[in-house]
Hints:
The complex is a heterodimer of chains A (277) and B (439). Chain A is mainly alpha-helical. In chain A, 73% of the residues lie in helices and 0% in strands. Chain A is flat. Chain B folds into 2 domains: 28-138 and 302-360, D-Maltodextrin-Binding Protein, domain 2, CATH 3.40.190; 142-300 and 377-435, Periplasmic binding protein-like II (D-Maltodextrin-Binding Protein, domain 2), CATH 3.40.190.10. Chain B has helices spanning 3-24, 38-53, 66-78, 93-99, 119-124, 147-152, 163-173, 194-204, 221-237, 247-255, 268-272, 315-325, 328-338, 349-353, 355-360, 364-373, 397-413, 418-435; strands at residues 28-35, 57-64, 86-89, 103-104, 126-127, 130-131, 134-146, 181-184, 259-265, 284-287, 301-309. The chains are: A mainly alpha (277), B alpha/beta (439). At the A-B interface, helix 6 of A face strand 1, helix 2, strand 2, helix 3 and helix 10 of B.
Amino acid sequence: MMTLNQQRKFKTFVTGAFAxxxxxxxxxxxxxxxxxxxxxxxxxxxxxxxxxxEPTLDNFGIVQERSDYLKxxxxxxxxxxxxxxxxxxxxxxxxxxxAFNPTKKTKDILLWMLSTKMLPAVGVLVPIYILSRxxxxxxxxxxxxxxxxLMNLPIxxxxxxxxxxxxxxxxxxxxxxxxxxxxxxxxxxxxxxSIGGISSTALLSIILCWNEAxxxxxxxxxxxxxxxxxxxxxxxxxGLFWAKLSAASTLACAPIVIFGWFCQKxxxxxxxxxxxx
Amino acid sequence: MxxxxxxxxxxAVSLAAAMSTANLYAQTEITVATVNNGHMIxxxxxxxxxxxxxxxxxxxxxxxxxxxxxxxxxxxIANKSGLYDVMTIGMYEAxxxxxxxxxxxxxxxxxxxxxxxxxxxxxxxxxxxxxYAAPFYGESSMVMYRKDxxxxxxxxxxxxxxxxxxxxxxxxxxxxxxxxxGMCLRGKAGWGDNMAFLSTMANSxxxxxxxxxxxxxxxxxxxxxAVTFYVDLLTKYGPPGASSNSxxxxxxxxxxxxxxxxxDATIAASFVTDPSQSTVADQVGFAQSPIQATxxxxxxxxxxxxxxxxxxxxADAAQTFIxxxxxxxxxxxxxxxxxxxxxxxxTRSSTYANPKFQEAAVFAKAELKAINSANPAxxxxxxxxxxxxxxxxxxxxxxxxxxxxxxxxxxxxxSMSVDQALKSANSSANRQMRQAGYY
Lengths: 277, 439
């Protein structure tokens, strides 16, 4: 018969083991991509797959030689950070208005915004393509920044709205009593109090933009193509390509994985914000 | 003259010189959209040699996955976006787009030697005798087999064997316990995947996609016989999960010694005989595709080609680039730079006449024979109104071919019978052809 203490330890162990299992399961594709990037093409397709092999850096050399990695990476950075910044500039006041000054239609507006995410992107490909062509935005970073901003705005407003709603209204009332304008309320009260939530929203938006492929492939060619377009260029209809594709994917993922690792504290803090009251 | 004046004068002269040099070398930038195939990547690497010879032209490359390339170049050309000056297209698109005036005719004047281009390839890329895309590399299909396994089984494979004989050989070499499967074929759904192969097989069984009135013929006995034979062959002697295999998956299986036979694009010959990527490089034999009722259309014809979208602002530079990339001199350059086994094949007769190429490429004769025997204008036993061996060169075919491919792939996976698959495919094709106004 286990004592209460033993039971608690066992429970912690089982929960921990389960969490590790899920984490390993989620991480496995990334791990496999990483080790495949060090294989030869023949090793990459061998069945059964080999875990132990003589690693080679040739694939990275080929990617470096064939693709302008820095140009693609810069495009990814500019478009994902640029669009996130613009979306936050629009999203913060919008979420503030809906969280602290709701109307009868606020819920409907929120639902309508979310419903735009349910439309398959390909459904609006032709009009967006033609608009981009007519305004000279094809194969331009500006065009991608606009599309990414519009793409992520509903999620950003929803997340910020949830964070702002959890802030005690009394603090804002106190600020108002002290003569704060709405702008002061946002800048001096709301933003400092919800910095964790805003950081995690920004991080999520950056990651979504970084990984976006549909619009990147359809609206860019050579000048504004981000890293997702670079990865796609390594798929071949006639010839083995898995090792080279894995090397390109590893290089494309590396910056955002490192960035996410440094920011994980904010991310976790933001995602659990308001979870316990 | 004081020091300041001298400095100013020097600066002004330098600036003027720099500006005039800039004008002298004002470059035309052309953007080439292409697919990630070995020969295309090689062209990308050799482009600096072209740029040195033509300092007024700068080439930018956009490499895309095949499906994305098709979508992007179609979008670009249909909307006249002008993103690309040169686009890589296939034998399916060239005559259709040429007919609609979406492409600039290829300039074949001077020393380009258009007569050297293999006639069937030239014909497939032309509309009304005007060449609308210059072939960069071409291919047909043929049998690639393991000489050692076939010999050990006491069998033989020859050109134009019957499908029954091929099935007997597959049965004889099939040894799943040792990881060897008698026959590897495309099973993945798609007009360019399983249907490219299956169309040639159906042609050899006497089938055709449409009759003279454009009515789909997928429910005829010829199609049923061909698809039943294909499903039976792959189910009994194919690798597990054959319904998701296409060129690359079968290439991987063959290179690992897991296929007794593989019928696919002739371009594969250079991969399976390359010791750096194939474990059976010295054991590969080649033969012309099998036949049943006829040899018409028994092997396909395809060419990845370079074309210029109508309306591009840089048409002259694009012509200059295409004339270089598809010339005899370019093939010579690749041969001297990377070896003759690595040259783009299937386009020019002179390549096959070159003794250095004949010596380096063991598959040369079989490949040329296959390409020469394919005739897109006469690929079916019964008369048909369309051009194309493994496709019908009409805009509706992509959708019809892919739907049929999905049905056949379903039959191969066992989710429906062959009869059900062909009935559904025929009914869908019928609907699309009627909607398109063919009848």
